[in-house]
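Morning F.,

Quick status update on the modeling queue. The single chain you submitted on Monday has been processed. Sequence for confirmation:
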Amino acid sequence: MTLLIPLAISQQIYDVWATTWDRSQLFTYTNLAPDPISFVSPSTVGQADIAVNDGAVFQDMVGFGAALTDSSALILNNLKASTHVTDADARSYAQNQNSATYWSILNTLFDPTDGANAAGLSYLRVPLGASDFSASVYSFDDVAGDTAFNQFNINRAPSYLFSVLRDIQSVNPYLRVNLVPWSPPAWMKDGGSMNGGSLQMQYTGIYANYLLKCLQGFENHGISAYAISIQNEPENSNPTYPICAMSAGQEAQIGTALRSLMDANGFSGVRIIGYEHNWDDAGGYPVQLMQDAPNAFSGVAFHCYEGTYTQQSAFHNAFPNKEIYFTECSGVYGSDWWQDIKWYMSNLFIGSVSYGSMSGLMWNVALDGQGNPKLPGTDSCSPNCRPVVTISSDGSYTFNQEFYSMAQASKAILPRDVNGPWGQRIGVSVGGGLAADLKVTAFVTGRSNPSDWRRYSLVVLNWADTQNGAWSPTPIRATIDFRGMQATYTFPVGVTTLWWYAP
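Structure tokens below.
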């Protein structure tokens, strides 16, 4: 008898990454050799029982990451170039030291190499023009009435944005860049300002041309976009930073025009991603957007600030063949480290992914310890937003809870082989008496050589930190069921990523 799915004979778990509630492990790698955990004939189930169903294959994953805002690029660039001393010899030494720190940070954040002690973050949002994290308000053509874009200049973006982005590309050749405007040029808007307001209808087609020129401008800097979005948070309006209220109907018109322009100008492979706003309207705006322009948009993106990740199903049920991205959430300074880890994993990097997201992103990649620099005069991010990595002016730095959460998830989906396939989400469920204390997602990663065994990964949150209202972090002994075989692992309170290989 030939089985469609081979039994899990001789599969073993060697590789484990863990971040624990008490920080005794921080994205810490353990190789279980010479005593790996083997899959054996099933016996008694553990306190929880994780059942992996690799016959159920869902979305392809494209990466975890954050936004490279002007401010993030400035903070990183300052580290690369900073000296902090005046003596020439000492300045040269300090510059070399800080440059080494810069590259160390980039490698830890972005290196996707299999086995590297790095998160392999692979998806960056990059604002087109100013955002609330820029030194000043600008677009790429601020000359009123220049509908032919004779004065369009992509180099109005700070040069360090492009140089840092190219450095990241040199670390991670898989990097996917999603370009996102916060606002059209001021002269296209009803209030004559990039801050607040909305796009005047007569500029709908002209704005599509503007976005095409943005794609071309980044391409000329050696940065090929994976995707472009039409508008960040179109249901938001704030007079203190660049933003633009935009109806679903108007976004659909821009998307339709832009799709035609992109297809005619060498960008047919670049996605257009719609919505870019909160979960709470998942069944409204993004559904209307797809109804109005089904051929223009590859899918939509969600943010975390209102609603819950389960609402992604309202969009998925209406358009099951459209892509779902999760592209923005931000923590704030002063919150609890472990409580944040639990929230990020349960809602974003396990939760949102389990409801179809192909990506998982935070807000700024890098800021200082006060959540600066921000656009002067903005009331955005109050209390102060916390980045993935905090970098101080003296060159010291701290990877925050955003990093450790994403690193645990990212490790599970990266290609096993150079230029090989990315992870795909597969079926998984949790049973047993302590099932509620674990949240789990599972992935399979294919191989460049089809005869090589595929990698099967679990990302597991154990949030059993209280009993009867009292603080009591409790490891959970869980069984893992795979193709009729069983392995047993005790998950500490925290996040664990582990994998094995099977044909």
